[in-house]
Amino acid sequence: AKITAYGVRPNERPYFDRLNHDHFEMTYVADLLTHANADQARGADGVLVRGNCVVDRENLSRFSKWGIRAVFTRSVGVNHIDLAAAAEFGIQIARVPGYSPYAVAELALTLGLSLFRHVDAAVQQTRQGDFRVPASYFSRELHTATVGIIGAGRIGMAEARLYRGLGAQVMAYTPHPKVADRQVVTFGDRATVLGHSDIVSVHVPYIPGENDQSLDQHFLAQMKPQAVLVNTARGELADPAAILHALDAGQLGGYGADVVTHETQLIGQDFGQVATVPDAAVRQLLAHPRVMVTPHMGSFTEPALEDMIKVSYQNFREWWATGRVTNGVSVRTH
Ligand code: COI
């Protein structure tokens, strides 16, 4: 079978080739899927995308016309896919429900610690030749601090374990806590977790129309004053105006994010300077001295990449062998 895979960076290709035990006929496209390069999938039996690929009605309609019945993503998140349109066109969607959770967890930890110890601000300062140590860099130590995990799934719990290893207390809020996880974290309702935590890290799926901008004024007001917020999940979960306001009002200590809004027009591109980044809210975040943004690179690690590719190939193998796929995704029903 023929698969067109989008968003495959040059260093990823050897992994795709090495793990291709089914000898799928691969076409690699380095760029993420857009309207302009959808035709690279013409003639393929299946399409493999990642986050920030444009899998909207328009592209799904094209794929359907070309006889493509399987559009799979190697991401955990599926918010970039129009599931209703896929159902209409009879296109099967599948995802990778989990890859090495340490990929995202380690980055979240790094962002959290950098803001907690004011490392980013200090480095920006010494780059200007300024070696003063302002009172604002005075810090607590992690072993006396509490970390709050919002969303105790695979990634959230991996981060909880990392923080526990560094001596922090870890609390977590999640809709369905697992009994075994109580050995690692103290579960509490959201307000309690936010009220106790010096670093809050969010690991929940973004469900369009359901939890847009849920990291809002109300959420931030429940946080401990001067605590740090980390979002490595999805930019759409955050309300940038509320975050900027909380930072400037002295309520929020720092914001670290591996994700921003409207990523499809940003990720993978070099704008040369902040002023030409085509999103006002993102520009404002980037310009703030207590905001750290990375370009959605949490999953860009060797173990995560291997897992993503292995499970994606498994998904295609199962689909073409049985007409079903265990990791299939359909429109959420409530
Ligand atoms: C996901 O797996 O959901 C991600 O965010 C990573 C993806 C963009 C490759």
TrEMBL record:
- Xref: InterPro entries: D-isomer_2_OHA_DH_cat_dom, D-isomer_DH_CS1, D-isomer_DH_NAD-bd, D-LDH-like, NAD(P)-bd_dom_sf
- List the protein's name: Lactate dehydrogenase
On whether Oxidoreductase is a keyword of this UniProt record, the answer is yes
| Family, as annotated | Belongs to the D-isomer specific 2-hydroxyacid dehydrogenase family.
Keyword set for this entry?
Answer: NAD, Oxidoreductase
Question: MF terms per GO, please?
Answer: D-lactate dehydrogenase (NAD+) activity; NAD binding
Q: Which organism is it from?
A: Levilactobacillus namurensis DSM 19117
Q: Which Gene3D superfamilies match?
A: NAD(P)-binding Rossmann-like Domain
Task: Output the PANTHER family linked to this UniProt entry.
Answer: 2-HYDROXYACID DEHYDROGENASE HOMOLOG 1-RELATED
Which SUPFAM superfamilies does the record cross-reference, listed alphabetically? Formate/glycerate dehydrogenase catalytic domain-like, NAD(P)-binding Rossmann-fold domains
Query: Does Membrane appear among the keywords?
Result: no
Pfam families the record matches: 2-Hacid_dh, 2-Hacid_dh_C
Question: Can you give the residue ranges of the D-isomer specific 2-hydroxyacid dehydrogenase NAD-binding domain?
Answer: 110-298
**D-isomer specific 2-hydroxyacid dehydrogenase catalytic domain: residues covered:** 8-329
